[in-house]
Each structure stands twice: as C-alpha cells, then as structure tokens.
Recover the amino acids of this structure.
C-alpha cells in the first residue's frame, strides 16, 4: 500500500502485467484468521508510478476526495452568455432596481490577491464622506444569486463543499463559468456582490458609527497582487508590470494606508482579547514541462496579506453576529475550542525540558484553556527566543499550532451564540462564520443566504442608511435552513474541509519529497533536542518542518557529517575512520559531539539551539510513497558553501534595495516631497486624494505588526 502503516493486500488478478508499475485502488474484501494478509480486489488503475498527475490522483484517493465532472443538469442551470462569450454577460436590468449601485467614480474598489488569482471572491473600498467621516466596504461575490437553493447546481456545490487546491491544479466547487468569470470580481467588469459597509468617525478615529449590509453592483478598478499593494504602502517604485496611472496610485496610497492602520487597530484589539499569533507555511514549486518539481521555496510573507486577512475576519465576524441575532437557533457559525489537554501535553513535554531556553519554560507553564494567558505567554516566549535565533520563535509558534483543536462549523441550535460552545478560541471572537469566500466554500454560500434572509425579514431598505443599523431584530424569525438540516450540512462541511486540507498538505509533501529524491538539498536547521543517545531533533525554518537525524547507522557506526567526498576510496576511508569514532551526549542533553577515540578530541560538536547543516533527500520506494531522509552536512561541503554564498548575495541585494528605498523616501525637502507625491510615491495617510500631499515618509510605512 501507499501508506507504509498498512499491511500488504493479496490481490488475485489476471491483469498482473497491466498493474506492474502502476498506482491502483484496491478494496479489501476480508481477512482470514489463518492468513498473514487480507484479500482484496482491484477497483481501478490510477496511472503510472512517478507520473505527477497519477501521484496527485493517489493523494486525492488517499485523503477521500472524490471529484467528477459537473453533471449535465447542473451545467444546464448556468446562465446563458451571448455568443458563448462570458465577457458579454451583463447585469440584468431587474437587479439594478434591487441593489445598491457602487459602480460610480466615487467608489474606488480593488481586489488584493496572490499573483495569477482568477477566482476573485472579495474586493474593498475606502471613501471619504463630505462630513469628514470615512466609509469602508468589503464586497463579496454574490454566488447565491447564481446558485439557487435546491437546484442541481446547488446540489453539486453542497456535495463538494470546497474547492481543493493542489500543487498542479485546482478542483473547483463551481463550474469555471462561475468561479472564474461571472462570479469572480474581475477588474473593469460589473459584478453582483453582497457588501458590508462601515461608516467610521474619521480617517484617524475608527469608531464605527454605522453598518450597512446588502446586495450591490460593483466594478473593480484594479486587481492588485499582495506585493504590488505593499510596494504602494511602502512608497516603493512599482516593479515591471505593476505600473498604474499616477492618479490611481495616489488614491490607492491613501486607501491602503487607512486599511493598514484600521486593520492594525482591529488586530491589536483581538490580540488583547486573547487572539493567537500562530504559524503556517506554504511551499511554492516550480515544475518542468512534464510537471516534475524542479525548485521549491517558501511562500513569501507580505504584510499586506495580514491587512486583507484582518478585513475578512472583521467582515466574517460582523455577518456572524447579524445572522446569529436573527436566527439564534439555526445560524451557521464556526467554533474553535481550546486545545485538548493531551495535545498540549505533547508540546509541554518538549518545552519543559528547557531545551529551547528560558522562553520555552514560559510557555510550558501556561494554562492552554485560557487564550489570553496562552497568547501573552507565546508573545513573551517568542520575544525572548528571537534574541537567540528567530527560528526558535518560529518553532514555538509551530509547536503551538500543532496543539490547536480543529475549528468546526455548527448550528447555533447546538450551542447558543455567546457561549463557550460558539466561541472562536484562536481569533478571540464570540461570533464567527465564513462569508468572504463563496466561490470556493459552500459554508459561505449558506452564510450569504442567511444574511439575506435576515435582511429581508427585518425589512432593511437596500438604499444607503445614515446611522448605525440596529442589531436587534424581531425574535423568532423562521430560519432559511432548519437546525436539524443545518447540522447535517455542517458535518458534511467539516468532513470535506478536513479532507481538503489533508489533500493539500499531502500533495505539497509529495512534491517536496519527489524533488528531494531527484535533487538533494542542503538546508540550515536548528538543533532543538536529543532523542535517546543517538538521534537529533531538528527544525528546518526555511520550509517549516521538523525531523530527526540518526547519528548511528544500522551497523552501529557513527555517521560523520557529509563532506561531499563520499565516493570511491574516500567512502572506504570514511568507513574505516568511523570505527575510531564515538558519540558523546552531555547529561543534560544540551550538547552532543562526535569524538575521535584515539585522541579523545571532537570531530564535530553542537549544542541545542545552535544551527547545523543538513543534507535532505528522499528514498525512491516504488511501492510506498517517498520518505524523507536527513544527514548532517559539514560546513566544508560544496553544497553548503554554495548555499552560504547564495545567502550572502541575497543579503547584499536586500541591503541595496533598502538603501535605495531610504535614499528615495527619507531626508528630502518639501519641494521634493511634493514632486514625489505627484508621482504617487508618497501619500498622506489621513487625507483624501484631493488634499495636498504633505506628510513625512515615516507616516507612510505603517504596517500591521
């Protein structure tokens, strides 16, 4: 089997010649008591071993993701587009009278997504009002308009529940006509949306004075990517291909500055209430024409990602409170319980050793049931750890993340809003749901329907309202989905969400291991502890993985760090010299060394929290999936030296870029500032685009820290 933990399965077949070298699905029929192996039969052939398409299909099968083309009945329900051209689709006239029109020039609406994103769920705008207040809006694709409840298209989406993102492809929850065209909030096209619009006291006072919910028509001005938006915030010149008209860049600088400061304020409030700063990692692969991975790097973290994420959290929380108030017994919310004690005990076992320094003991003694205590302890621990090595802080967050319980969808009929059973521990929010990604998550489609039902029941007008919208509406509104049915839907959502995450994780691991099998890599790792007397626990911060290095081979010989000369006579000499080596571990397990027993001198040594070099590769098992292998590498290894040289070049480039940025935006006079402002390089953080651009460069670089 693909999974090494499973036993062999005996398959009787006349197709043995066709099955050789193939991945195929087997169903177990039974297991006789007298047999060492269960019996089974072949269900279907997936494809050749090491073929990337077949290997990713095997991941889907292994994680329980079933994907089939959309049925003809569902496709027949798609909107007709003139001449078969999605670009020719227009907003129906009947919708214009039922929705708030946000397509005017005063609404500068943009999206901020990863490069190449085609399923654009969300857009945002900021608008200065005549009375000095500021309007901030989040606009989400109105999928519920196209996917009617009870339709065949709805049945397909409800069964899939989520889009699945693999390294080599995306399995959509909705047909591409909707996911990439009619629902997607693309630049320059009128699109249907459901919006949440806040009225704030001013550009510096973010007190909410009014909230509006409703259906809208929007037209996005620009599809920005994260780094492009961040460059505008940081007053950097645009990269090739990221150029924008000067006036639009000036407007965006003002808009993004307000969003940056607003989200920093929102985030600070959540952290004060106990929100956790956890870690996540995502790898980006470069593939060749055959789909084989040829390079990997961690997805770069851009501060603008946090800005967008915080805006979506704010929107989700607002919608959750609105729907839970309207339907207290049948609203779809999301609950994140505290870490299970046994899960946190595994983290505590590592931390209490003190191997990660004093910072780890701070975290080890905390009560994980209280998110405020855990949040503050984690913050303090990471601050202390960062003074030693930033990778230690990464590891502490990674360990805490692994201990977290799974967040789940539920109906408020099972846990009343405002109670512990409805609380989101990680985000420190009493009300939370998923609303902002309806193109790729069915839960968000349900949240849209519930919000619209709540608005209709409370007879909220669709035109703009001055003043705050009352949260309290008449009780006992009939929910659009009864509690019992909603609980069944929530369970399906949880299952599919779990399977989707597992498939994405396993696919990334598969690509990484296949890459390491064909191209061994050297990486700098943090020594985080010792297991027994012959194994090292290590953490590789560049790709956020933990692993174990065996210091003694199967023959009991000490494995010295690789030097790159492990071939021919050198290999024989290395094997001979290993007979005179021994492994020494200190009593407190904080230090390890390889000693030459003839001279009692160390050949290699390291202490916990020190960096070591690793050679990472993967075995080439055909029956099972590939498996990660780690060996120590010496500083003299050619691949290590090349890695160090590459790191120095990157540091030099970063320093040069920082110097250019400082020269461009700091220490300049008013006349030069005004000229730069006219080109959209510097923008005042608190005034609308029509105001004079006079501000210090320092005020333009606020980020969400």
């Amino acid at each position: 089997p693909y999974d090494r933990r499973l036993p062999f399965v005996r398959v009787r077949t006349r197709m043995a010649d066709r099955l050789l070298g193939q991945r195929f699905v087997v169903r177990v029929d039974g297991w006789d008591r007298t047999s060492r192996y269960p019996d089974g039969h072949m269900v279907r052939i997936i494809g050749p071993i090491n073929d990337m398409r077949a290997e990713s299909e095997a991941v889907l099968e292994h994680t329980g993701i079933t994907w089939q083309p959309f049925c003809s009945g569902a496709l027949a329900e798609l909107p007709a587009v003139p001449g078969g051209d999605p670009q020719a689709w227009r907003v129906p006239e009947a919708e214009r009278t039922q929705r708030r029109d946000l397509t005017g020039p005063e609404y500068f609406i943009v999206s901020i997504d990863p490069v190449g994103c085609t399923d654009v769920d969300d857009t945002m705008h900021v608008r200065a009002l005549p009375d000095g207040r500021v309007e901030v809006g989040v606009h989400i694709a109105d999928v519920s308009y196209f996917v009617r409840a009870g339709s065949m298209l709805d049945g397909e989406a409800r069964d899939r529940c989520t889009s699945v993102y693999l390294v080599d492809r995306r399995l959509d929850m909705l047909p591409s006509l909707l996911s990439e065209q009619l629902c997607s909030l693309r630049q320059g096209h009128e699109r249907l949306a459901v919006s949440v619009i806040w009225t704030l006291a001013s550009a510096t006072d973010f007190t909410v004075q009014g909230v509006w919910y409703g259906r809208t028509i929007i037209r996005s001005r620009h599809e920005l990517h994260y780094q492009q938006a961040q460059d505008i915030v940081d007053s950097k010149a645009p990269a090739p291909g990221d150029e924008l008209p000067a006036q639009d860049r000036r407007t965006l600088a003002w808009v993004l500055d307000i969003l940056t400061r607003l989200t920093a304020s929102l985030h600070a409030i959540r952290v004060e209430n106990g929100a956790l700063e956890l870690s996540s990692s995502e790898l980006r692969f470069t593939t060749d024409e055959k789909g084989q991975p040829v390079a990997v790097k961690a997805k770069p973290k851009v501060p603008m990602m946090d800005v967008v994420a915080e805006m979506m959290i704010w929107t989700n929380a607002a919608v959750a409170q609105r729907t839970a108030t309207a339907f207290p017994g049948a609203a779809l919310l999301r609950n994140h319980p505290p870490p299970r004690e046994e899960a946190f005990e595994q983290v505590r076992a590592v931390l209490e050793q003190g191997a990660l320094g004093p910072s780890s003991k701070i975290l080890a003694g905390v009560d994980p049931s209280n998110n405020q205590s855990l949040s503050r302890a984690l913050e303090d621990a990471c601050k202390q750890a960062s003074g030693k090595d930033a990778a230690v802080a990464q590891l502490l967050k990674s360990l805490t993340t692994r201990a977290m319980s799974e967040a789940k969808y539920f109906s408020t009929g099972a846990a009343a809003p405002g109670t512990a059973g409805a609380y989101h521990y990680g985000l420190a929010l009493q009300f939370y749901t998923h609303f902002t990604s309806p193109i790729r998550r069915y839960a968000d489609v349900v949240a849209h329907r519930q919000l619209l039902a709540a608005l209709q029941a409370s007879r909220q007008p669709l035109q703009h309202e001055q003043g705050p919208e009352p949260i309290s509406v008449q009780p006992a509104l009939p929910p659009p989905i009864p509690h019992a049915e909603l609980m069944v839907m929530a369970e399906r959502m949880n299952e599919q969400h779990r399977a989707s995450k597992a498939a994405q994780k396993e696919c990334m691991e598969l690509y990484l291991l296949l890459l390491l099998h064909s191209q061994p890599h050297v990486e700098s790792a943090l020594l985080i502890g010792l297991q027994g007397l012959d194994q090292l626990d290590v953490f590789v911060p560049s790709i956020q993985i933990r692993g174990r290095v065996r210091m003694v081979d199967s023959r009991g010989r000490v494995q010295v760090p690789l030097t790159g000369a492990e071939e021919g006579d050198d290999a024989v000499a290395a094997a001979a010299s290993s007979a005179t080596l021994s492994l020494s571990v200190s009593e407190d397990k904080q230090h390890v060394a390889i000693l030459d027993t003839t001279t009692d001198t160390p050949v290699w040594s390291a202490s916990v929290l020190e960096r070591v070099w690793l050679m990472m590769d993967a075995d080439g098992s055909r029956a099972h999936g590939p498996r990660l292998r780690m060996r120590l590498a010496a500083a003299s290894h050619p691949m290590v030296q090349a890695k160090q040289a590459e790191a120095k070049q990157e540091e030099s480039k970063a320093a040069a870029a920082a110097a250019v940025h400082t020269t461009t935006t700091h220490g300049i006079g008013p006349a030069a500032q005004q000229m730069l402002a006219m080109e959209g390089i510097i923008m005042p953080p608190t005034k609308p685009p029509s105001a004079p651009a006079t501000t210090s460069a320092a005020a333009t670089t606020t980020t969400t820290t």
About this structure: The longest strand covers residues 208-219. Confidence is low (pLDDT under 50) at residues 460-475, 568-573, 662-705. The chain is about 35% helix and 20% strand.
